[in-house]
Batch of 2 targets.
Target 1
Amino acid sequence: MDHERRCKLDVPRDLYEKVGDRKRIIKLIKIGLLSLKVVYLEKEIADLADKIKGSKKHITELPHETERLYELLGKAIEDRQVLEKMLDKGR
Amino acid sequence: MNIQRKKVKKIALENDCEILETAKKLGISLDSEAIRNIIGLGMDSSHVESQLKQTVKELEEKKEELESHFKKIALQTVRLEAEYVGVRNQYARIFRDNRVLAMHLCVHTPMNDHERRMRDLLIQKYIIDSKLA
């Protein structure tokens, strides 16, 4: 009973009369929904393509940034050795 | 209320319950106004149902492909970011240590010119410039 009630649609009467028959109404609803689905999917695909593009750019830049940090780290380690040596001498 | 009821005609979907499933997936309600708009879209469409179904199928395949590609890139990103953050934290820790050591160096008397230059350079780098940054 519940299933039956759920499987009924309220079609505006003026539209129903304009189209004329149930089968054509159902067909138009199906086509309308499929058109909407196409639009939604196209948008999702475009968003995904943008995200991929952004991520690709990010993963191209990251190794350079990491490399730059490794250089800074190496220099900071050298500095620490110098600092420790100088402070040891002063004791 | 009766007037409102007369404005719509209830039609049974019978074996066409896929309409409900599609609407649910799209997150749209199927009240009479929504149905009016959907029928409007159907009337405006220049495609037949089978063409649209084929297009949906192709787009879903493309979406799946892109999602899979994106997941692979996301994994790569996570790995690279983890390395970046690791090095950055290590650098920040050593920089802070050096800053403390440079502060100790401020009260240190240099033994020669070379040491004086080196001392001034390190104080400049780890205390003065670091404050400006």
Note: The radius of gyration of chain A is 33 Å.
Target 2
Amino acid sequence: MNAQQKLRAPSRWRAWEIALWVLIWATPVVFAQHAALVNEIAILALFALSLDLILGYAGIVSLGHAAFFGVGAYGASLFAKHVMPDPLVGLVVGTVLGAVLGVLTSPMIVRGTDLTRLMVTMGIALVLLELANKFDNITGGADGLQGVVMGPVVVPFIGRFDFDLGARVASFYSLGVLFVAFLLLRRIVHSPLGISLQALRDNRLRVSAIGLSVQGRLAAVYTLGAALAGAAGALLAQTTGFASLDAFEFHRSADVMLALVIGGAGWLWGGLIGAIAFKVMHDLLSAFTPQYWTFWIGLFLVVLMLVGREKLFRPWTWWRRGSK
Amino acid sequence: MLTLLFDGIAYGMLLFVLSLGLAVTMGLMNFINLAHGAFAMAGGYVLVVLMQQAGWPFLACLPAAFIVTAAAGALFERTLYRPMYGKPHLDQVLFSIGLTFMAVAAVDYVIGSQQQNVQLPDVFRHRFEFGTGAWQLGMGAYRLFIVVVCIGLALLLQALLSRTRFGSRLRAAVDDPRVAAGLGIPVNRVFLVTFAVGSGLAGLGGALGADILGLDPSFPLKFMVYFLIVCAVGGTSSITGPLVAALVLGIADVMGKYYAPKLGAFIVYVLMIAILLWRPQGLFTREGGR
């Protein structure tokens, strides 16, 4: 294998990747009665994917990713309520709003230390939460924005699909968006931009020394991540017909971070696998102990961080000495 | 007006005591401990349980809260925190959020999710009034007590840090742990003691603030943001930084809630973002420190 082939190898589609996607597309058909859960997982996966881009690939820590999610959710549902109910146009609106907010806030995250970034991102989400709470004549305040009626999803040459109560159309719709985003990101992270981002995550000084603009790249990737998070928010608002302050809450930023960490940051499947694992775990635990499921999530996190992901998910290495 | 200012100062002083331990851990070992609020909550619950179940007097419960949480802090530092020091910040954040989740759920399970009330002694129910009109100053005896205790603590800590051998060891370890260890300073032990004292202070703050801040199992999550703001804005290399930041935050919060109740915490967050954009390292940073 020569150098060129070696460099290109990660960008090739593997058989297991294609197989996984076939499985993912089959889930709404096989588990038709759990379509709502599939829909939620798809949305969380898209959200986690957007965080993976900025955290796993560019190394920007963020505890306020919900800011973009919320903006997308409110943008899409307000658009559906006051302008037109077409979901695809609404999705574009949510995505663009997320991107605009990303552009506006990106100068704030390129400076300072990790702690500063954590605080600034968290602060932005909290400011937006307070604003959404204050302008309750637009957003509905603590009651949430109700009475959003979505039109059918119109796919050219195929047909019109109305959202149904069983969330089947919703789950296919969200999976479709997730799939498109995955393809797009897969393309981006293996492009020169994506590779420079990973270099930048590992050593900023060297990247700037070889003449690449660190700030420009960070701002670009942050905006892209924000746009995808906006799309995820728009999907949630459209498929549930509801947007609430919950979209901006801190726990949403924390949840998506958790999902990503469970799946592993720094590869695209991390977001997807993490979202599936997190939602399934959440569902099982809250069926088991509705009130105290956070305890087990917390315990899992503590153990995961103490032991390390590499080791925890490979039980056969637990008793081997000296191996990492 | 003056009354509000006074309430703000009392609130800020509480925040100072609550977040001081966090500032020290962050400055010393570069560790972002989001579970700090859990120690504060533990202090509050020690107070409540001792007063209600064991019938201890209020003033005796305060040192007890300090001691119990300091012991818990030492235990956790030794067993759980120490392996996390070398890890990346993100791992530390997630680890301590996990601890917080566990603490919240555990307290909910053991004691229940209702808000806890603290029966203050009658001495503290008194209220002093000075002046009239817009410049009237009303001081609740309890808030006055908090201010006095917190000023005392701040002076004591300042003296401890600048006058004693332990203080100079701590400062040396903050500036450069490797060189400090090379000089024979037991950095690990210094940090164990510091962590315990910081947790104990958080517990004391939680006990003191149980009446003003309210106490229920979601306490660590509710106030985590405030502690972090104090540390991020004040910088973590001195006592003065967090003190000033806590006072500003307390006053801004109380005034904001009074004059613009609908804006709520909005002012505080915007202020924080503005300060952090202006000085990303915090307001007070020292040359030479990291």
Note: Chain A has two domains: 32-276, 289-324.
